[in-house]
Amino acid sequence: MSLTPSANSSSEIPDSLKVIKLSSGHDARDPVIFNIESEEPLNLDITLSSGQTFRWEKEDPDWWGGIIKGNRVFLRQVEINKSAIRLECKLSPSVKQTNLLENYFNLNKNYTEIYSAFEGDPILKLAALKYRGLRLLAQDPWEMLISFILSSASNIPRIRGNIKRMCEEFGDKKFDVFGEFHSFPSSSVLASASIDDFKSLGFGFRASYVWETSLKIAEDPGFLSKIASLPYIEAKDELCKLSGVGEKIADCVLLFGFDRLESFPVDTWIKKIVERYYFDGRAIPVKKLAEFGREQFGDYAGVAQQYLFEYARGLESE
Fold it and tell me: How much is the pTM?
């Protein structure tokens, strides 16, 4: 079974969004506050803690703070009803990108259609019901490349800590109405650092990978743009030539940084759940599992992967 869109359906939903400005601030030092309403399902807590992004932090029980395209953003979610959501957002008045959140949360993708495609798979159907509103984010390829190199043999809290320390040490210091923050460092900046610098941040064996890949990208600044133009298999092969990048990390970069939904990253969680529910518990090589995911879930392989990942983590905690 391959999960693909029906011939007469569309994944574009241009009329589902509405932006309502609540406050423009009294002067240039005040944040802009506005709402985004959407008919598309979105669960902010599940999405921002799902292991696909590492620079968001829960500021209090309601608000998340993060950085999108170099801009600091604070978000909280208010449900309107079962079929619509509202995000309340605080931005610096200097931010002019009106589609920042719509693009970042991929609110132009029709997840209701994707859920319909999941109906024929009992495990995905359960996962979609339990984690409804989990969405794939549109993130920066360079940031995803370094972030997932740092994810090797690690866990989410450690990855977050490593990235935070790296940004504070090597990112540009920036200021907005909320105070000081740091950008994600460029390849040239990281390439000018040393492996020992990275080890001092707690990168361990990943330190040499980060330095070598940063040097490669700094020397070939068009590399990631070339990846975006390549077919999936070729793009993955090129990424795997980078230091510290194997098949899983390459698939993560393609899925979360390039929106390549045919990617199906296989980590420990995915290996466990796919073997358990699709292979009667038999041990299957990782490469075969990735091929199975792409064939089984088709155009929605990457979305299916994220729901299976979250479902597997949920089973472990129950």
Answer: 0.91
Distance CA 91, CA 25 (A): 10
Domain assignment of residue 278, yes or no: no
Question: Is residue 167 assigned to a domain?
Answer: yes
CB atoms within 10 A of CB 215: 16
Mean pLDDT by 10 residues, the chain (318 residues): 49 52 56 85 94 94 93 86 78 78 93 95 97 97 98 96 98 94 98 98 98 98 98 98 98 98 97 98 98 96 98 88
One DSSP character per residue, 22-58 reads: EE--SSTTSPEEEEEEESS---HHHHHTSSS--S-EE
Looking at the DSSP bridge assignments, the partners of residue 58 are 64
Helices (H), 220-285: 223-229, 232-239, 247-258, 268-278
Q: What is the CA angle 10-16-19, rounded to 5? A: 145
Contact of 293 with 266, CB cutoff 8 Å: yes
In a domain? residue 33: yes
Rg of the chain (C-alpha set): 20
Distance CA 100, CA 105 (A): 9
Contact 244, 278 (CB under 8 A): no
pLDDT tens digits for range 195-227? 999 999 999 999 999 999 999 999 999 999 999
Task: Name residues whose C-beta falls within 8 Å of residue 316's C-beta, 6 or more positions apart in sequence.
Answer: 269
Q: What is the pLDDT of residues 240-266, one digit of tens each?
A: 999 999 999 999 999 999 999 999 999
Residue 116 lies in a domain: no
**CATH number of the domain encompassing residue 85:** 3.30.310.40
Q: How long, in residues, is the chain?
A: 318
Residue 54's domain comprises 17-106
Residue the block writes with tokens 């698939």: 251
Q: What is the tens place of the pLDDT at every residue in 162-172?
A: 999 999 999 99
DSSP letter at 253 equals: H
